[in-house]
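Journal club side-thread
Mid-discussion, someone asked how the predicted structure for our own chain would compare to the paper's figures. Pasting it here so we can look after the session.
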Amino acid sequence: MIRDDAAEEKRASDDKPQPWQTLLRLPQTWGAIVAKALTDPVWFFVADWFPIYLVAKGFSLRNSILAVWVPFIAADLGNFFGGAASSWLIHRGWSLGKARKAVVIFGGFGVLLLIPTIFATSLSSITLLFALSTFSYASFSTIANVFPSDLFFSRSVATVSGLTGTGAGIGTIIAFKLIGYFSDNAHTAAAHSFDRIMVVAGIVPFVGMLLVLLLVRNTPSTQEGLVRQL
């Protein structure tokens, strides 16, 4: 659907802050929340646990110090890619909603590459899979960060951003409690103690992708002027 710029300008001129109770009744708000809540925990897992994972797989950190940095560099590149790719698609005639969702789909499928690390045995293959996953995560995350301003008018953006940040914080706290529990109570060899964690870490952003596709859309609230048209 093509944006009606005149209608958008009229709604923007009538913009007034919406209470969070009203915003939480909108599917678009929940789409923005899950986009952060189901992706940020995966990044913090990689940032804090990747070196521990390498040790659990039998690699020495002394010999893996360069590999530890690769997923972080890939994430930096993914941030640039997510914004650039969606902008390129918009300039090619895609609607804002389709361009953003295309990057979300790319990111959701890409983070699934965390799962094959369970079977990888070489440092180079594990590092490559993590790099592709963090690149994909960062592309998805870049779009998640702009959803509040994409979806809502200016006087509601800060409230929705606060709600998404709260969701990300809660999701990260829960994730780290579960990661610690399962890694401490694993009854398998150290190399396999992360298996379930890696599967969940790959699947959760994919579920987030599906929820974004379901929730972030034009609805009657768009016509009412509560949400921007995508």
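Post-session note: The domain at 25-218 is CATH 1.20.1250.20 (Growth Hormone; Chain: A;).
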